[in-house]
Amino acid sequence: MQQNTNTDFEVRSLDAMCVNESHLNHRWYHNIKYLIVGVLFGIVFVKSEVVSWFRIQEMFRLQSFHMYGIIGSAVVVGVISVWLIKKFNIKTIYGETIEFHSKTFNKGQIYGGLLFGLGWAITGACPGPLFAQIGTGATVILVTLLSAIAGTWTYGLLRDKLPH
After folding, report:
1. Domain membership flag for residue 1
2. In which domain, by residue range, is 137 found?
3. Domain-located, residue 29
4. Total number of domains in the chain
């Protein structure tokens, strides 16, 4: 049996968690700006119908370009943003360096992507806008939220036994 010799950094770089952690300490009210941006982002999601169960079902049935256009636009903006950060060595608003680390492909990404897509298609809800959907009055999405929390907890419990 081969022993896992990955360093803490190597293991963390495989996770979705941030490896560019800030070491700055801020007061509690420092995070209010994130709440404001999150609320505004939720409003944009609702107005653009990104949180619409109907739009999500249209996407998975290949009946409309609406969601593909939004997702494609986000990918383009992300690619350009990363390119600009790397090209001009842009730092955070606090002057901290932003580092990008290479990720290696593994079969767990295929399994995870399939599970994610299946859950998204069945529930009509992506984890990002769950709270926006609940905020629109779709309280049935609470079941999806609790399921997402349970799935995250289960992953954390089984993480060392899963293919990474």
Report:
1. no
2. 8-161
3. yes
4. 1
Q: Using one digit for the tens of pLDDT, what is the confidence trace for 26-72?
A: 888 988 999 999 899 889 989 999 888 889 889 999 999 999 999 99
Distance of CA 143 to the CA centre of its chain: 19
| Distance from C-alpha of 76 to C-alpha of 105, rounded to nearest angstrom | 21
User: In what helix (H) or strand (E) does residue 131 lie, and over which residues does it extend?
Assistant: helix 130-135
> Given CA atoms 55, 61, 65, 69 in this order, what sign does their dihedral have?
positive
Separation of alpha carbons 61 and 50, rounded Å: 16
The torsion defined by the Cα of 40, 46, 49 and 53, in degrees rounded to 10, comes to 130
Q: What pLDDT score does 69 carry?
A: 95
What DSSP character marks residue 31?
G
